[in-house]
Amino acid sequence: MNVDLGVALNENHFDSLNQTVLEIQNLVSSSAAAVLIIQNGVVVNEWYSGRHDHSEQSRKVDAKSQFNIGSIRKTYLGFAISLALQEGRLKGLDDFVSNYLDDVDDSVITGTTIRHLLSHTHGLYEPLKRMFPAGTNWKYNNAGVNLLISIVQKVFDRPLASVINDEVLRRYGLTETGWRKEQSENLVWVNETYSGEHGGEANLFASTRDLAYWGYLHLTKGSYQGDQLLPKTIFQRAVEITTPSSLDDTLPRNGFFWWVQDRPRSMSELGQQLPKGSFQSLGIFGNALLVIPEYNVVAVRMLNQIERNPEGYNYLKDIQNFRNKVLECILSNEILK
């Protein structure tokens, strides 16, 4: 991305964070890793480790390396839904899914709204069957994601990838982000097979910088070098809590797929320490995108994790440790105080 963010690298200050990620990289057999921190509009830490795969001839990881960001792709889908609301293509969050999808069994999705799909409270699983009444519980899966991808296709009359390419990537200069089905020099590949680049599969790749700037756009509500290229409400809406207010207090709160911190909740991955208003998205290969508005911070971690749960590894503790290290480092960063 051609963005004019200042750079005040303080690598020694963030060494403990980078070392923590390096240890996880080795533990989960990830050949590649990266960390980038933006604080107060300045890149304060940018760190790369390893190679695109485990062979000695493989390319070294650098700023151009693009990682598969896994489920973080859902935040781009969330943007498309927010844009559709902004443009009147969708009537509202509480509009019924059945109003847009004619080829889905209405008896299964009855009572299910756009809000339910975005907040994982739809109660559906694939092939489309019902686990619980919409809005009464929370379950993380891709059933709602796939329905929303179909809704985007319907209301925009083009695939999700086309919407994101035209409305976000080109507009904001995110040239190192996109759906990829073929391996290429810049991609940190994970030996998976994809059939297309239309946005319906988990094959969205991004460079570390591009993913950090994606988070930064949500922090600045779409402001780009002083210009408001899209209405700020599109970004603001996406990171506000969408979860039905009646949901059990222990369950997570989501925006447009983002995990949003209002207060600590026992079933939320956000933990106890993040301030109110923080939001986060995670990917299956070990990627993390964390935004902390109270401290004006965006933090990104990239991995190409192959081994899911090796001995001695706990996913939730790993994510919490990364978050805690980010907080520890930024709160003591004298350069930007």
Automatic annotation (TrEMBL):
Signal peptide: none annotated. SUPFAM superfamilies: beta-lactamase/transpeptidase-like. It holds the Pfam family Beta-lactamase. Residues 31-310 form the Beta-lactamase-related domain. It comes from the Bacteria. This is Beta-lactamase family protein. PANTHER family: BETA-LACTAMASE-RELATED, BETA-LACTAMASE-RELATED DOMAIN-CONTAINING PROTEIN.
